[in-house]
Amino acid sequence: MPTDEEMMLVAKLFHDAPNLDKETEYYTAVMALLMVAPSRCSELMSLSVNCLEWEEDSLGNKQLGIRWIPAKNGKEGLKWVPSSMQDVIIEAVKRLTNIGALARNAAKFAEENPNTLMISDQDVQLSPYLSQKPLTEIEIGKALGFNGKYGIRTKWFKKLMKENDFVITYDVLGKYLYEKYTSKFNYWPYIDKNKNVKASEALLLFRENEFHDDFSPKSFSFVLPTVNQINDRFCYSETRPKTSLWEKHCIGTSKGEFIRLPSHNARHWLSTKAERGGMDELTLANWAGRARVADNKAYDHRTEEEKSESVRNLLIPEDISILDKIHLNLPITYEDLGKDRIGIATVTEIGICEHDYAMSPCSRHGDCETCKELICIKGLESSLEILKQRETQLIEQFNKAKEHHKIGVFGEDRWISNLGWRLTHIKTKIKFLENSEIPNGSLLRMPDEYDPSPVKLALQEKGMDIDLQKPETARLDDDLYRLMEL
């Protein structure tokens, strides 16, 4: 894939081209069309001079599109031009239109006058008599735009003389040139197989020798560039000296090297830039004229780290909430819970356990309902449902304990105290989860004094100040029953 430096050198060459020469103007305009949207070089051949279209978007702003016929079963339509590139594309189309104007005139003449020689000399009018008149080599040279004073010794002319009994007329020249130039178009007078664009309308059309340093362009000629000719202008080669624009104008990279930039590399460069910019796969496939979205993969040159980062950003936005992380099965860090330590918390069926299992095993043996290290999260539907089920079970057990206590069963007062303590915790959590005024994602922790650690209890018994408030002793009175709604 080309570097950004190489692509910027193409842009600079396009900018400087009007002050250089016609060849540079033409080929940099071609490359500008390839740099505006992911395209194949061969697709440019079917562009017409009227390929630019303006349409309003949903906001009422005018957007520029190029009427495009993609290859390989792509969908025909408008290839949209980014706003920052609109002026560049308008200028590129203008340059190509001006350079190829005379070639399109010649193609139009051939279309309307088959097998007829196009005479550039306005003083010569081809009458039926003059068309059949044998021509001298000087007259032939004048008609074809070269000097025939010293004879014509080219192979094609010798072959033409032999095929016509050494008698050359304007009619013979007309048939020869018509066959020579139209045979290069498989669907003459059209460019493409769908017959949308005629050769006389082709944007990239130019005359033979249009960019030659030693010979003048042939006024009756019209040709399209080949992909190889375009590549030669942007790919430096030791075997083809002076064909690349880089060598011609002594332009190199910061390392002093000439550039090798095949036209198809612009397609790879743009596709990768679009992937890095976050363009979705369907939009990219449509923009590039690809028949299958899966084909995007062949043009994606991002590193594995870049791909992983894009997926991570897609799945884990910076402002993701704890609830969203739970729903996506993503790890909950202690930092997410407001703890200043490194590690991952454990998501349970009724909340999040922030116990650090790397330090010690669970001292509660899975008894999470009254544990201070369990955090309830508002909006976690599964926890509310499970807590209500356990509330129903505990109420049933608590009622049985009360009945047994009334008849004097030994030890039931301890069960009433334990079950009441547990039921109070669960009811508090349920009221928190059902409170519509509390926003989703809010955290509920049990105060430390309601579940002190064994270490803190031991220190407290020794009379040490550990900043632990002692809660009031719960009694089996009417206030406790009212709290439990019993």
UniProtKB/TrEMBL annotation:
Q: Is the keyword Coiled coil in the record?
A: yes
Statement: the UniProt record of this protein carries the keyword Signal: no
Task: Name the keywords, alphabetized.
Answer: Coiled coil
**Organism superkingdom:** Bacteria
Taking the record's annotation, the residue ranges forming a coiled coil are 377-404
Q: Which InterPro entries match?
A: Integrase-like_cat_sf (IPR013762)
Q: What's an example of a GO molecular-function annotation for this chain?
A: DNA binding
One BP term from GO: DNA recombination
Q: What is this protein called?
A: Integrase
Q: What is the lineage of its organism?
A: Bacteria, Pseudomonadati, Pseudomonadota, Gammaproteobacteria, Pasteurellales
